[in-house]
Specification:
Low-confidence stretches of chain A: none
Strand order of the largest sheet of chain A: 1-2-3-4
Largest interface: A-B, 31 and 37 residues
Number of helices of chain A: 4
Radius of gyration of chain B: 26 Å
Strand content of chain A: 15-25%
Largest sheet of chain B: 7 strands, antiparallel
Oligomer: heterodimer
Strand content of chain B: 25-35%
Helix content of chain B: 25-40%
Strand order of the largest sheet of chain B: 6-5-4-10-9-8-7
Distance between the termini of chain A: 37 Å
Chain lengths: 163, 460
């Protein structure tokens, strides 16, 4: 991975907590299970149990693939606090690297949804004056998220000069 | 606190006329069944009269209840409301710009509405409608003068800031430029294509629809022609002032140092005349709700030298065409076969410039000091080709800056460099830092700049 230009040059990419994968798997697995059960039930009741079996296999295959994909996706997320900016990298198929100079940050959000609270995780989102910035770091332990927010806010304050 | 003032006395009439048709139509829709017999018809008639009286009364009382004045802090306050009293404060220290517009109806009465644009508030509650045009201009000058801290001597500065007309876009040029846009040309070419297809296939009904296809380009060109009719760019002490519109007249101000990004576009068919269009992102209220009201088109069409002169006013010292642009990766031809030769990106000490577009080649310019964030993105197909695109994020607006399909490692380097430049520019207080106040004098071509007659333009 070191010769990949997206992550090259920084040694200390901070990964996010693997519990994020657990959470995302929980959500997508329940969805896949729900749809599969529904389809299988309809096909079986409708008199096509053999197609129902195929649907079941497809559902299981989708679940396995998603299980694997989510693991990779979560491992692909990382961030680095550099001297002057914050870097966030994410994505496997569609890859993205966001660089936000500290002086441009207007707002740092920490969000915790019900599932995130259950898993003991939080999401940090950086806002600049641009709507397209979209620098989000999911899957952080709350104390890390809180520390990051305070630190980023302080750095932002220090370097900002309005719009 | 200054004595409260009211909007123009004709206001209730205009608001009433504006609201009445909708309500009357509503009566017809609701009372549709009842109106079939004579008594029902009388009922509907009475209802309409009743509604007209009610609307008129409401509009009148609403007018008496709307007052505006300056409070002890020197900010503008607007109180309104019949039952629930609203009091809105326009914090003049956060005033971005003041727009004076004349919607069609108001224009018939010689009235205008005034909209102070303040960061972080919606325009709806603070729009003053309606004032006479001269009052609106006066109030605008007053607000801008107070915003720049001249509150103690409001009378001395209450005249409209003197302005110097830079450019006036002649209507024939505007019309020609709109007809020569790719979208219009496409819509026009569509007509014979459809008619020919109908002739070959023998579907004469389809051929008839060609008549209706004529409306499409007429609507597109007509709408924009009315919108940008009589476009005037003037320089005043509170910024670049834009005035345009035939049916609905607009007056917008681009305050100095508020321009976040600039796009210069040159549709392929404008090339023989050397025309370009200039579009900007201006920082203003958050959210897209009233983005329509914020200045975006600074120059709908003008010869390049004129556009350059105007560009000097919004981004002093920037010449995007002199910037050495790094072309996209050769592999880009497989991702963007039409425009890959146009693609390029580069930076000077003060701005980042990208070029793209096939039918409409465009140059996007963002000062380092206005760079909000930088993104490198790569889809699967791009990854296979070993290219990635670098987005430089600006505030919401029509201009977006993206260096498409650079070699992946070059893209990463470009992003790092741009993030570094953005940080540096901000710390040193780079160009365009002036939040308000004086404009740097800029060397300009002999003013006022009229448009040059384009070489042998065919009258069509």
């Amino acid at each position: 991975m070191s010769n990949d230009p997206f992550v090259a040059g920084e040694d200390e990419w901070v990964p996010v907590n693997p519990r994020l994968a657990t959470g995302r798997r929980l959500v997508s697995m329940s969805l896949v299970a729900l749809v599969t059960i529904l389809v299988v039930a309809i096909l079986t009741v409708g008199g096509y149990p053999e197609y129902g079996f195929v649907a079941l296999l497809l559902g299981v295959a989708t679940a396995l693939w998603l299980w694997w994909l989510i693991g990779r996706q979560v491992r692909a997320i990382g961030y680095v606090e550099r001297a002057d900016d914050l870097l966030v990298v994410s994505g496997i198929l569609f890859r993205r690297l966001v660089l936000v100079p500290y002086g441009r940050m207007q707002l740092v959000d920490v969000r915790r949804g019900p599932l995130e609270r259950y898993l003991g995780l939080a999401t940090v989102q950086l806002h600049t004056a641009a709507a397209t910035t979209d620098a989000t770091i999911p899957g952080l332990p709350p104390e890390v998220a809180g520390r990051l927010r305070d630190q980023l806010a302080a750095l932002g304050e220090q370097r900002s000069a309005g719009l | 606190m200054t004595p409260p003032r009211r909007t123009h006395p004709v206001t209730p009439l205009v608001t009433g006329v504006r609201a009445a048709p909708v309500l009357i139509i509503g009566v017809f829709v609701i009372g549709d069944g009842a109106a079939t017999d004579v008594i029902g018809g009388l009922g509907t008639g009475a209802m309409i009269v009743l509604i007209l009286v009610g609307v008129g009364l409401y509009a009148y009382i609403a007018w008496t209840r709307l007052e505006f004045f300056y409070d002890d802090d020197g900010d503008l306050r607007i109180t309104s409301g019949l039952l629930v009293r609203n009091e809105r404060r326009v914090q003049l220290s956060r005033l971005q710009s003041v727009d004076v517009t004349q919607p069609l109806l108001a224009r018939l009465f010689g009235l205008a509405e005034l909209r102070p644009d303040v960061a972080g508030t919606s325009a709806e509650g603070t729009t003053l409608r309606y004032l006479s045009l001269s009052d609106a201009e006066q109030l605008r000058a007053e607000l801008l003068a107070r915003a720049s801290g001249l509150r103690d001597e409001p009378d001395a500065v209450a005249q409209t800031a003197p302005e110097q007309v830079l450019v006036q876009v002649p209507s024939p040029h505007l019309l020609a430029s709109l007809i020569l846009q790719p979208i219009t040309v496409f819509l026009i070419l569509l007509i014979p294509a459809v008619v020919a297809f109908a002739g070959v296939a023998g579907v004469w009904e389809l051929g008839l629809s060609g008549i209706f296809l004529v409306f499409a380009p007429v609507t597109v060109v007509g709408g924009q022609f009315l919108k940008y009719f009589g476009f005037t760019v003037a320089q005043s002490s509170d910024g670049l002032r834009l005035r345009f519109g035939l049916t609905s007249h607009r007056s917008q101000t681009v305050p100095p140092g508020r321009v976040q990004a600039v796009r210069i576009e040159r549709p392929l068919m404008w090339k023989p005349w050397g025309w370009v269009r200039v579009v900007v992102n201006v920082a203003g209220t958050a959210g897209g709700g009233d983005s329509e009201e914020r200045p975006s088109v600074v120059l709908p069409v003008a010869p390049l030298p004129v556009a350059r002169a105007v560009l000097q006013r919004v981004l002093p010292g920037v010449d995007p065409f002199a910037v050495a642009l790094a072309p996209a990766s050769p592999a880009a031809r497989w991702r963007a076969p039409l425009q890959h030769k146009q693609l390029g990106a580069g930076a000077t000490s003060s701005v980042f410039v990208t070029r793209r577009g096939w039918l409409v080649p465009q140059w996007d310019i963002v000062p380092h000091a206005r760079t909000q964030s930088v993104r490198v993105v790569q889809g699967p197909w791009q990854r296979w080709l070993g290219v990635a695109s670098v987005h430089v994020d600006s505030t919401p607006g029509p201009v977006s800056i993206v260096a498409l399909h650079q070699q992946t490692d070059a893209a990463r380097e470009m992003a790092d460099a741009q993030a570094r430049r953005a940080g540096l520019a901000r710390r040193l207080g780079g160009p365009g830092q002036a939040e308000s106040g004086s404009i740097e004098p800029v060397e300009l071509h002999p003013a006022p700049l009229g448009l040059q007659q384009p070489p042998e333009r065919s009258e069509s």
